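Q: How would the structure tokens look for this protein?
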Amino acid sequence: MKTLENLLQRNRNWAASVHADDPDFFAKLENQQMPQYLWIGCSDSRVPANQITGLAPGEVFVHRNVANVVAETDFNLLAVLQYAVDVLKVRHIIVCGHYGCGGVRAALENFRHGMIDNWLSGIRALRRVHREELDALPPEAASDRLCELNVLAQASHVARTTIVEDAWERGQEIFVHSWIYRLDNGIILPLRPAIKAPLNNLD
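A: Here is the predicted structure in token form.
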């Protein structure tokens, strides 16, 4: 197990390596951030946004929570979303879940887990809507399918926020993506084409 001092040393090593490769990197980073992407992902430590997309610090604005939930009552998420859209002017909002998500698996189970059940209530509702499809699958496949359905639902929630709808109304170009990450091979899979206009205007 790595000690805190070990982490600090690793940080110093990283900073020295970055500076050696690009002496101006931190000076440029200090003065501005201009990410093109907002990443809404799961808190799972195996799914770090920058690393799995190969992006450097300053290139992606990140919000993470258990099971990549987008809830209209989550002011933390909404504050991040508004800042990303209105101030940073990101063009791409990526909702990225992952197969084997513990939060989604918990939503499939029929016993209480504590306070987390309140957070997962929307995924449980999604499970009820798709019960027939999910019940026809083996447990692991059902969990993976619910992971996909959850990503699709949360991306739709993003598109239906007044923040994104207002941005589209004023002509701002925003694409909302639905992605899922495979832990077994490190590959990200798009689940559907990006949403680029209000959902009620789409066929």
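The longest strand covers residues 188-195.

The chain has two domains: 1-31, 33-201.

Upvote if useful.
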